[in-house]
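During the no-cost extension, the postdoctoral fellow (Dr. R.K.) reprocessed legacy sequence entries with the updated structure-token encoder. One reprocessed record is reproduced below for audit purposes.
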Amino acid sequence: MIHCLQLNENLYAEIISIWDKTGISNPERADSFDSIQRTLEHGGILLLAYMEAILVGTIWLTNDYRRLYIHHMAVLPEFQKQGIGRSLLQEAIQIADKQGLQAKLEVHSDNAAALNLYRSMGFKVLDGYLVMIRRN
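Re-encoded structure tokens follow.
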């Protein structure tokens, strides 16, 4: 597991490729090179999983000094079901625990595999809450 605190254009392209291949990329999210790098400069972390020299998984972490937000957890389809996602998530939880933060994430209700993983790691649905966002 690599903790990436600095981004470059080549790494960004690899990360976006994983997000595209796993279907979590969405232009409305505006996850640009600059927006990601800005979060890294303010306490954010990219966790990167490699097999040999191939980037196979990512988690992007940010925080508000109360919660650690887990964004864009993704593992390339051909490397899924090998424990990579679980390892990434365990590392994120350890970071949250070490910093004394609650770990929080969002997951699409149709993503059964991710829901099962998150539940198995102790995450629960916050009953009655809806995710809302305002975008320009």
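The helical segments are 9-21, 33-41, 84-99, 112-120. Residues 13 and 33 are 9 Å apart (CA to CA). The remaining legacy entries will be reprocessed before the final report is submitted.
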